[in-house]
Amino acid sequence: MATLSNARFSADARAEQEGATAQCEFCDARLARRFRQVLKQITTAGEPSIPFACQDAAQSKAAYRFFSNPRVDEWAILSGHMHCTRDRVQSTPGSLLVLHDTTEISYGSNEGDIGLLSRVARKTICGLLMHSSPVVTPEGLPLGIAAVKFWTRNKFKGTNALKRKVNPTRVPIEQKESIRWLQNVQQSTELLRCPDQCIHVGDRESDIYELFCAAQKLGTHFLVRTCADRLCGDQRTRWRRRCALYVAGACTR
Question: Which of 14, 75, 134, 221 could form a disulfide with 199 if both were Cys (CB 3.0 to 4.6 A apart)?
Fold first, then answer.
């Protein structure tokens, strides 16, 4: 029974993968064919290593050439998946949560040294940053990725790096890493085409005034964890205004 269940799941996963890759937007049909072949090799082998998955020097070289092609970017690779995300969203009634957060991807070889309570050392490492926006239902059912952005610190400076030289508040949002929040809110809203249905959720890093303005302009909703104690319309700060409100509920877990 377990073998049959796994086989059925694999067949369903392959069918969904083929449906997503068929919608990928490559500028050349040859790139689309190569992408489907490389993805099939990696998923079949169950190993992210390209030489191990391809099992052939010529196929490995073709895969590396594909990923180094300047006409191949994250949108071309993920566009099919994002179109499938939009299809699932359009068939899902009710409110939806778009969860925005940043992940550090490290290509270091010390995976065994990083545990649940460990911390990566503050040193130069080979890797990149990814800011993704998955869509889930209030019950926690994932529907897919609506927006994603990759970058390195060579292009943008973090807030701590800016503080050493200038006041970060005087730097335009377009020159800071914080622009990723605005870009993903806009990209996910344009992709899903249902701003009234979506609630964009972020941590303290997303407490950005420009993000509030962008969400209001797009006609969508947001829920962020406050970081700055801003003034409200009645000239009170947000913290003082919250303290004056009645307790609406409590959670003891």
Answer: 221
